Amino acid sequence: QVQLVESGGGLVQAGGSLRLSCAASGRSFSSYTMGWFRQAPGKEREFVVRITRFNEITYYPDSVKGRFTISRDNTKNTLYLQMNSLKPEDTAIYYCAAREALSTRQFDYWGQGTQVTVSS
């Protein structure tokens, strides 16, 4: 079982930046595909970005491209999401997720989420 704990959320003005972190337990972090999702009030959870164990990165939706950067530090078992030029529409609870190497599911483990609020 993997535990994921997000941190770094908060209240920021539009145009500002935040860096989210996701600390993972266990010894297999480097083998996981890791991802960030978000859920805005009244909306379904949406995929934001993922990074494979080979550091292949997929961003979705287009609105975060060029503003959000995902990275991972396998020596610290930590995933990051650098968010720049934040917009009010980025307001959401942000979740990190992990998928084991041989899993057939989209993701196997989820964190509890961290709130990001962007004021206009």
Global structural class: mainly beta
Percent in strands: over 45%
What is the N-to-C order of secondary-structure elements (H for helix, E for strand)? EEEEEEEEEEE
The total of helices stands at: 0
Number of strands: 11
Rg computed from alpha carbons, rounded to a whole number of angstroms = 14 Å
Distance between the termini: 40 Å
Q: Assign a percent range to the helix content.
A: under 10%
Mean pLDDT: 95
Uncertain stretches of 5 or more adjacent residues: none
Can you describe this structure?
The mean pLDDT is 95. Strands 2, 4, 5, 6, 9, 10 and 11 form a 7-stranded mixed β-sheet that branches. This protein has a 4-stranded antiparallel β-sheet with strand order 1-3-8-7, with no helix packed on it. It is built from no helices and 11 strands. It is globular. Strand 4 (33-39) and strand 5 form a beta hairpin. It is mainly β.
Explain briefly what this protein structure is.
The protein has 120 residues and is mainly β. It has strands at 4-7, 10-13, 18-24, 33-39, 46-51, 57-59, 68-73, 78-83, 92-99, 109-110, 114-119.
